[in-house]
């Protein structure tokens, strides 16, 4: 009797799975017919709107900062799985607030080309798969399932399949057989299993196919694109070629994440370079590290090098200058280490929440070990000392890049360590006119605090590895070097 029951359950499950697949097939077929998937081989569209810098808000309560897309053109080849975007972006918030290479002076051209091959990362493939026509093509090819779902009182059929990163990709199809939304998750070193969604509305007939005239993409809960389409050309002639070397790839310092050259700044004080800069200080019974970089590999490499230079001591503190994604993604290594993260008190709750998010799509060491973050908030000033070494932490006032920005001052070494107030450019570059308000604010704060620091160490260390001085900062904002 038990054998019969188990067999019946297995058969029922198989029948249900087969029925779900068949139902999904008919749903996909109806939606494909409604929006003209088979007839739409390529598309070219132009738009205006905004893009937003992921993880670069001026404080944890704000959405990602906005930039204006003065021009936006995209061509997509659904059959060859290729896409090319050309856009011109301008400053979106005045005065500048937050990161994302602000302030943008004049027109900033940006291009991105994706040609899917066997080794194309899944998040890049999603740029095509998340489009309504791309989603239905992928759902048909990947054995999708379907289920009814009601969201905010509206009925949908949700078609889902598993992506290459093992996360579900789900498309919400309404009663008119239009794809209104596509949802999935992608791995992010800071935000973990980060939600990625695309929302489509205002469908319009374009040469026999239906295409949305309003597209919103969100990552991490906030928009990263909000576009209103102006012109759509179905089956346009496209010829998408790979971008040249050095364009559209990973940052140059990513390849050197495990290389951590060091420079002795003073007795027991070391500058670590080879990527985002960090400073390790030898306290009496522990190590304090200022910044751990933009990724878990970089953070692990920084911690390992600090322990090599200062053997036999644990890493007790890691100072986080601010909560922007590129300055906080290395904190997962600090969590795995069990170190206490020091940050301005306005960042504390945000870091505690974000560093506790699950990282199941690409488990890092903190996820594997089940470690939880230890975050300690500091006020406008905090002094770390063991009687020999001194580290002063100061919050920058009126600093538009981030409300909770800390700088570190080492009075014995006469060094200021800062992030994003001044990001050194090549020595051949011309200082901007007017100067960046972030650099002006940094210099104003150093003067306000009366910090005697001939040398400045930017976390975004110069590519030529030169020593950056206060004289260079003053030159960059066209001010005399005297206080």
In short:
This protein is an alpha+beta fold and 483 residues long. It has helices at 2-35, 122-129, 132-141, 296-309, 325-328, 331-337, 348-354, 365-369, 437-448, 470-476, and strands at 42-52, 66-77, 82-91, 108-115, 145-151, 154-162, 168-173, 179-188, 192-206, 209-219, 222-234, 262-266, 269-272, 278-282, 287-290, 315-319, 340-344, 374-378, 381-385, 390-395, 406-410, 415-418, 455-458, 468-469. The protein has two domains: 24-234, outer membrane lipoprotein receptor (LolB), chain A (Clam), CATH 2.50.20; 256-476, Ribonuclease Z/Hydroxyacylglutathione hydrolase-like (Metallo-beta-lactamase, Chain A, 4-Layer Sandwich).
Taking the sheet with the most strands, its summary is: 11 strands, antiparallel
Unreliable sequence segments = 6-20, 246-255
How many E-type strands?
Answer: 24
**Helical percent range?**
10-25%
Question: What is the terminal-to-terminal distance?
Answer: 91 Å
Mean pLDDT across all amino acids: 92
Q: Please count the helical segments.
A: 10
Would you write up a description of this structure?
The chain is an alpha+beta fold. It has 2 domains: 24-234, outer membrane lipoprotein receptor (LolB), chain A (Clam), CATH 2.50.20; 256-476, 4-Layer Sandwich (Metallo-beta-lactamase, Chain A). 22% of the residues lie in helices and 35% in strands. The chain contains 10 helices and 24 strands. The protein has helices at 2-35, 122-129, 132-141, 296-309, 325-328, 331-337, 348-354, 365-369, 437-448, 470-476; strands spanning 42-52, 66-77, 82-91, 108-115, 145-151, 154-162, 168-173, 179-188, 192-206, 209-219, 222-234, 262-266, 269-272, 278-282, 287-290, 315-319, 340-344, 374-378, 381-385, 390-395, 406-410, 415-418, 455-458, 468-469. A hairpin with a 2-residue loop joins strand 10 (209-219) and strand 11 (222-234). Helix 4 crosses helix 6. The radius of gyration is 26 Å and the shape is elongated.
